[in-house]
Amino acid sequence: MTPWVALLCALLALVPLARAEPLELELVAEHPIDGMPSGNLSGLALCGGQLWGESDRDDDRIYRFDRTHAVWQAEPRRFEVPEPPSSGLAWNIRLAAWAAGFVRGGAHDFEGISCDQAENAYLVSEAHAAVLQVPPSGPARWLAIDPQVVQQARHAGLLQNFNAIFEGLAVAPGGDRLWLAAERERRGLVGLVRHGERWGCDGPCVLLSEDGEQLAPTGLAQRFPLHLDFSDLALYRGKLFTLERNAYRICRRDTTSSDVEACWSFAATARVPARQYHQPYGLTEALAVDAEGAWVGTDNNEQPRNDGEQRPVVWRFAAPPGGWMASP
């Protein structure tokens, strides 16, 4: 076989992989939520067998969801938030975050929630690029994160724009490792390790930094290229699962390299006309994963979808055939 023929065969072998579409997840149920007066569901987490969520407009509470009925009831758990630490964000981003919080509410702009096996809840603040720990009892406290974390992230091109800072987090069961997702322009993943009471990095903090644009899947309202983005993170069986809002998909990634191992789409669910919103970008911002499936929640910015539903909505998808660890 000549070198040219060998090269052609190798290229042809890659064509099916390049054209392969992610397997579509099967929708099992959808659940509107009552009891979140501010709406804006921005994170989901399984904690002690219960499903919890948070709103980026609420600075003083998280919600446990009573899932007894098809329409869920949000039950608030309130706490006090101490003065946030200085993380090293640029002054113009901090100023814009302060102004946005003053106008719309949600000064801390909590954008993700996760839990460890001790049932401590962790909330990531987009306004401060900081993480709040809310224990089962006792006062909430900010994690002592080394300022080098934000500095390294910014040096890698992350955290450059207002409202495009940390959008999700995942915590290891032992509460000793933490991952943060930078939202967009550039999107990325940052890995932290606990050293006593402080959090830093073993090696480079930034696991991924990438930029680019993509078209939304066919049949959805978006008609122009959208930024690659992350809107939430979940950890399941030692793997990171990224919610990629503008691509309408969930991807499984390695926790160290951040390499994509598999992806699954939920575009078919989102493209049903009654479920669509008149918004120029995707709206799914909350993700939790378990053995049976995934919970995906919508931050609808208090806007109604085509069928008139204005409450936050959570979709329940069945796990893919063979489970989340299988190759699609």
From TrEMBL:
Alphabetical keyword list: Signal
InterPro entries named among the record's database cross-references: Phytase-like_dom
Highest rank taxon of the organism: Bacteria
Domain Phytase-like per the UniProt entry, residue ranges: 38-186
Span of the signal peptide: 1-20
Signal found in the keyword field: yes
Keyword Signal: yes
UniProt name for this protein: Esterase-like activity of phytase family protein
Naturally occurring in which organism (per UniProt): Pseudomonas typographi
